Amino acid sequence: MSNREISEKIAQLEKELAELKNLQNSVPSFSYSKISKDDLKELFQIERNFDKSVFENWFNSDLELSNEDNIFLKTLLEKESDFIQIYKEEDLKIKFLSPILNRIDFKIDHKIRDFYEEPLVYETEEFRFKGTTDFLVSYGFEKAEKPFFFIQEFKKGLEYSNPEPQLLAELIAGLEISNSKQIRGAYIIGAIWNFVVLEKVGEESYRYFVSQNFDSTDFEKLKLIYKNLLFVKKEILEMVK
Questions:
Q1: Which of 89, 113, 149, 201 can bridge 107 by disulfide, Cβ–Cβ 3.0-4.6 Å?
Q2: Which residues on neighbouring strands pair with residue 200, listed in sequence order?
Q3: For residue 23, what pLDDT band results from cuts at 50, 70 and 90?
Q4: Which CATH class is domain 28-239?
């Protein structure tokens, strides 16, 4: 073997050794769209709390819908109610969810706005969360810098994917990025909305609360969904004053 061949062999071995070291030093990476409850329990102390009182201030606010809001929701529901549970993901988002979210209008001057399909990364020495969020409201204009509220997932049903652990992973990432103690979100399965509150109770320790079902094909429940979203906007406005 020539000196040149020996040098090339050594260089190749050094390259392979460096790649092996990088692989050994790399932290496990989890995608929001594929994470499971088992994954979350491996990473954190996280448990569900069934005390619904955490939602009282949120759901029992004194906000009232205007007559124009009621007409808008009634008209939208009359048009889309037969299709909500059979729409594909993008159809549901564009035909039913986006009109509601756009009417709420989470764009608050040039500091806070709503983001669709926004990449979000949260990384520690032990793991990395990454992926694309369906919807979030965040401080920042060009990119999400300090998340306040998430909605996940625009799915037809559980057979496609379970949005709850996906939302929880996003909420944990958002809470830690924002350096907060509590954060809110919601997940959607077909016509059903569930609102979620996540709280940090210690180092790598969390508890979460899931609301009762809100059926968006029921006009009275749809009004409550809309009111709950209005409260989120109101709270964000108060936080940033």
A1: 113
A2: 206
A3: very low
A4: alpha beta
Other CB atoms within 10 Å distance of the CB of residue 194? 17
Residue 222 burial (C-beta neighbours within 10 Å; 0-12, 13-18, 19+): buried
Residue whose C-alpha is closest to residue 124's, from 169, 176, 184, 46: 176
- 196-203's contacts with Cβ under 8 Å and 24+ in sequence apart are 196/164, 196/167, 196/168, 196/171, 197/54, 197/55, 197/58, 198/168, 198/171, 198/172, 200/175, 202/45
Cis preceding-peptide flag for 153 (omega within 30 of 0)? yes
Q: What is the pLDDT of residue 240?
A: 79
DSSP state of 12: H
CA-to-CA separations, 68 to 25, 65, 75, 103, 230, in angstroms, rounded: 57, 8, 11, 11, 14
Structure tokens at 28: 């496990």
Predicted TM-score (pTM) of the model is: 0.86
- What's the Cα-to-Cα distance from 19 to each of 10, 38, 41, 73, 158, rounded to whole Å? 14, 29, 30, 56, 39
89 Cα distance to chain centroid: 16
Does residue 88 carry a pLDDT above 90? no
Residue with tokens 């954060």: 183
Separation between Cα atoms, residue 193 and residue 55, nearest integer Å:
14
Domain ranges for the chain: 28-239
Specify burial of residue 3 (Cβ count, 10 A radius: 0-12, 13-18, 19+).
Answer: exposed
CA 94 – CA 81 distance, rounded (Å): 14
